[in-house]
């Protein structure tokens, strides 16, 4: 009979070995991070819609234009800078007016080291130094009014200063309240609840070869007047020999009901027909990775809750386009007659027989691409689905 201690030790060693085999090494994680970072640097628009572009050799006159449009500059800067400027603006204003109150008290002989006589009439009661002057400035601008430091009627100039400080304090409060409200209500925040599929696919649809993407609205409130369109960015050379970087080509996307005023109540699968007028017509399944382009997709709409217009965008590079796959259905209907959306299938695909190229498809050549592992596009990952297709069909 085997020794239980030895058996337990062997089992532990096997589990430990399996764990380290399943866990990616630090070197592999670092290599994946560098690969993803390189992909991010090489694309103009990130998956989250952020534009990766730098401006160089901007003249000082152009930089001064940012100060002329000060409101937009404040709206666009990051929250951490907003917080720093918020604290600095109030603290600096309190300190500047504290110096003014200190100068008034000094000019009137109110400070303790000036030894005022017993019948002295101060401009500000209980202001004896710089600290008390700063506290009086803070209490005045924030309308705290503890009652210890009070302005006397013996100094008309001090009355003018308190009026000026009160007005400036109201302006500062109004500016920051408005700025915070605008930044909270930015339409860009609404765009966070609209998501695109991580991958695009190319497969037959309605007797045509189509490039398909999927988009979903995570809120139940609708986007009114939604329009989706795309731009293909690539480097082209004109017949005159001129190289155009980021040449833009229009890509039309549509749903079965059309391409304008989408009824965006549930996730939609939109498609672009690859015909002779499409820039994808000459691309084949084995040459797509050799292409250098970026497909930027835009969704414009108006939120029905706030009536604010917003734009959502994402991009796809050749590595993120799967040739010969289609999206799995995600809308089903329960026994109670309720429509359900299964977001676990939002990015999932399955292989389908697809022609090798658009020309082969329309000419009727039976050159199909149905590889289970996506050989022609190594960057595209197929997710195995077990008995989920029939469960999601309506």
Structural notes for this entry:
It is a multi-pass membrane protein. Keywords: Cell membrane, Ion channel, Ion transport, Membrane, Potassium, Potassium transport, Transmembrane, Transmembrane helix, Transport, Voltage-gated channel. Its main location: membrane. It catalyses: K(+)(in) = K(+)(out). One of its GO terms (molecular function) is ATP-activated inward rectifier potassium channel activity. There is one protein chain. The chain is built from ten helices and 14 strands. α5 crosses α6 and α5 (79-108) runs antiparallel to α7. It is elongated. The chain has helices at residues 4-22, 26-42, 60-68, 70-76, 79-108, 130-141, 156-184, 187-191, 358-363, 389-392; strands at residues 194-196, 200-205, 208-217, 223-237, 243-252, 260-262, 268-273, 293-303, 309-316, 321-323, 325-327, 331-333, 339-341, 349-351. Mean pLDDT is 82; it is low at 370-394. Helix content is 35%, strand content 22%. With 394 residues, it is α+β, with helices and mostly antiparallel strands. The strands form four sheets. Strands 1, 2, 3, 7 and 10 form a five-stranded mixed β-sheet that branches. Strands 4, 5, 6, 8 and 9 form a five-stranded antiparallel β-sheet that branches. It has a two-stranded antiparallel ribbon with strand order 11-14. The longest helix has 30 residues, at 79-108. It has two domains: 79-184, Helix Hairpins (Orthogonal Bundle), CATH 1.10.287.70; 188-392, Sandwich (Immunoglobulin-like).
């Amino acid at each position: 009979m085997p020794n239980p201690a030895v058996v337990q030790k062997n089992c532990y060693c096997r589990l430990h070995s399996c764990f380290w085999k399943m866990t990616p090494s630090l070197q592999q994680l670092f290599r994946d991070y560098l690969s993803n970072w390189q992909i991010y640097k090489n694309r103009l628009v990130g998956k989250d819609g952020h534009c990766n572009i730098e401006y160089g050799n901007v003249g000082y006159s152009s930089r001064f234009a940012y100060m002329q449009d000060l409101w937009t500059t404040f709206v666009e800067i990051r929250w951490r800078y907003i917080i720093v400027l918020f604290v600095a603006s109030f603290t600096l204003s309190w300190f500047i007016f504290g110096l003014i109150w200190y100068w008034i008290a000094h000019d009137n002989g109110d400070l303790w080291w000036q030894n005022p006589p017993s019948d002295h009439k101060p401009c500000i009661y209980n202001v004896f130094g710089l600290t008390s002057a700063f506290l009086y400035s803070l209490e005045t601008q924030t309308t705290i009014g503890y009652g210890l430091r009070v302005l006397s009627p013996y100094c008309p100039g001090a009355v003018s200063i308190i009026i000026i400080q009160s007005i400036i304090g109201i302006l500062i409060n109004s500016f920051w309240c408005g700025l915070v409200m605008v930044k909270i209500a930015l339409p860009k925040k609404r765009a966070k609840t609209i998501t695109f599929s991580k991958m695009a696919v190319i497969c037959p649809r309605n007797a045509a070869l189509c490039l398909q993407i999927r988009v979903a609205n995570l809120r139940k409130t609708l986007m009114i007047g939604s329009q989706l369109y795309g731009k293909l960015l690539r480097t082209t050379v004109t017949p005159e020999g001129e190289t155009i970087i980021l040449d833009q080509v229009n890509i039309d996307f549509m749903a079965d009901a059309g391409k304008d005023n989408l009824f965006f109540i549930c996730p939609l699968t939109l498609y672009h027909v690859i015909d002779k007028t499409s820039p994808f017509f000459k691309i084949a399944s084995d040459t797509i990775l050799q292409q250098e382009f970026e497909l930027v997709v835009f969704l414009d709409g108006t939120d029905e809750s706030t009536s604010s217009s917003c734009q959502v965008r994402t991009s796809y590079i050749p590595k993120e386009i799967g040739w010969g796959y289609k999206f799995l259905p995600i809308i089903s209907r329960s026994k109670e007659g309720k429509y359900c959306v299964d977001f676990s299938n939002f990015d999932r695909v399955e292989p389908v027989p697809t022609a090798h190229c658009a020309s082969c498809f329309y000419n009727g050549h039976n050159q199909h691409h149905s590889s289970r592992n996506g050989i022609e596009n190594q960057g595209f990952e197929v997710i195995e689905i077990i008995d989920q297709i029939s469960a999601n069909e309506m």
